[in-house]
Amino acid sequence: VQLQAFGGGLVQPGGSLTLSCAASGLSVSTMGWFRQAPGKEREFVADINMNVGYSYYSESVKGRFTISRDNAKNTVNLQMNTLKFEDTAVYYCVAGRGTGAWDYWGQGTQVTVSS
Asked: Which of 8, 38, 60, 73 is deepest in the core (most CB within 10 A)?
């Protein structure tokens, strides 16, 4: 499985940005996003079950970020609103086959929130 993520960039505080990730190869059960800020550990952001659409969010992004799926394209999107300085990080797309583990990791895409 190959994960291709795109959509990162520079945005001002309070702005919005959308990340997308396409999975090619095998079908996956769950897709999501992690992020890693400079000097910090990698942390979970959000994920979504590709079959039934259940989604989960970290407390730090709940209410601001929305994860959605496009099963026809095997793609997941992360709509990020009301961005804060602390959202600055490298965002990683992940995918799992339903075993409870994240089996696949994509390359990171940089999101920078700066004025």
From this structure: 8
Q: How far apart are CA 16 and CA 54, in angstroms?
A: 23
**Strand locations in the chain (E):** 2-6, 9-11, 17-24, 30-36, 43-49, 55-57, 65-70, 75-80, 89-96, 104-105, 109-113
Q: Is residue 90 a contact partner of residue 36, using CB atoms and an 8 Å limit?
A: yes
pLDDT (tens digit per residue) in 54-112: 999 999 999 999 999 998 888 999 999 999 999 999 999 999 988 888 999 999 999 99
Size of the chain, expressed as the number of residues it contains: 115
Burial class (CB in 10 A: 0-12, 13-18, 19+), 38: exposed
Q: What is residue 99's three-state secondary structure?
A: coil
CA distances from 54 to 6, 92, 113 (A): 23, 20, 28
Amino acid at 97: R
Q: How many CB atoms lie within 10 A of CB 103?
A: 16
CA dihedral 26, 28, 31, 36 (to 10 degrees): -50
Q: Which residue has the tokens 């890693």?
A: 36
